[in-house]
Amino acid sequence: MRILVVEDDVNLNRQLADALKEVGYVVDQAFDGEEGHFLGDTEPYDAVILDIGLPELDGISVVEKWRGNGKVMPVLMLTARDRWSDKVAGIDAGADDYVAKPFHVEEVLARVRALIRRAAGHASSEIACGPVRLDTKASKATVNGIALKLTSHEFRLLSYLMHHMGEVVSRTELIEHMYDQDFDRDSNTIEVFVGRLRKKIGVELIETVRGLGYRMQAPTDDH
Fold first, then answer.
1. Domain end residue (candidates: 95, 119, 143)
2. Annotated DNA-binding ranges (predicted)?
3. Residue 130 shares a structural domain with residue 103
4. From the CA atom positions of the chain, what is the Rg in Å?
5. Across residues 58-79, what is the average pLDDT?
6. How confident is residue 182, by pLDDT bands cut at 50, 70 and 90?
7. Alpha-helix residue ranges (DSSP H) falling in 94-217
């Protein structure tokens, strides 16, 4: 899962980025509205954390431009504590949720998890596919109740496939959502990670759709 943090306070931006990376997200950072708008317009994100008071272009304008261009990624807006009008303006502009400053980073992480889950149609913090369970809150996965030992890249791959269960996900899409913008996108590492993940899961849940990509779904009774 790939997150964009747009916050001009360098320390807060770093604090949020570090916390997100620690629980397995890939993070791109922007420090003003123009840069943030450009990244959100040109790169695919699973969620965006967007400060309302940004230099160059304010957060309200950024989210309005994204929505006007058809960008649908969930946006969590950071607002001033006592400015209820900012919260209303942010939601009306197209933000999906807000957190007022000062905040606990854990609350931001919980809201980001919820936004990503809801965008993929999942209400619970646990997502199941056959015997595999993904705990989005704890960033852990199990098979038949036994914890899976996954590398950070394997976990990102499993998480993305499970959030998009039943959908064919292309190799390009996986690369775009598993790595930041500086990653070498001609690499064949996705195939390697899929192979490793299949071995660790031990059940046939990840199907290769020839020429299109991969699909994760639980086997049906007639399989």
1. 119
2. 124-218
3. no
4. 18
5. 96
6. low
7. 105-119, 152-163, 171-178, 189-201
